[in-house]
Design brief:
This protein is α+β, with helices and mostly antiparallel strands. It has one domain (about 10-35, about 45-80): Arc Repressor Mutant, subunit A. The protein is built from two helices and three strands. It has helices at about 20-35, 45-60, and strands at about 10-15, 65-70, 75-80. It has a three-stranded antiparallel sheet with strand order 1-2-3. Helix 1 (about 20-35) packs across helix 2 (about 45-60). The longest helix is centred in the middle third of the chain and has 15 residues, at about 20-35. About 5% of the residues are buried. The model is unreliable at about 1-5 (pLDDT under 50).
């Protein structure tokens, strides 16, 4: 049996987007979009458009919703290589 160290990655559990209530999913995606601070260039992109883009990424498997048991929090992670 191996020892648990501070260097070990937190335990992440995938949460299917279909398992979340629509209002919960909306709030999670909005929170993700608002804290990302992505620069969209000179043209402002409406929040609704950004949210729709993230939902599309979730549907395509380009992003995933994860529960981190170490922090007991839920987040959205982009999938590298997609």
């Amino acid at each position: 049996m191996s020892a648990v160290t501070d260097d070990d990655p937190p335990q992440l559990v995938d949460v299917p987007m279909t398992e979340l209530a629509p209002d919960t999913l909306q709030a999670l995606v909005e929170s993700f979009v608002l804290r990302e601070g992505t620069d969209y260039g000179e043209q402002e992109v409406p929040l609704a458009t950004k949210v729709a883009q993230v939902v599309t990424q979730l549907q395509r498997g380009e992003a995933r919703i994860v529960f981190d048991s170490a922090t007991e929090s839920v987040d959205i992670r982009l999938v590298l290589g997609k």
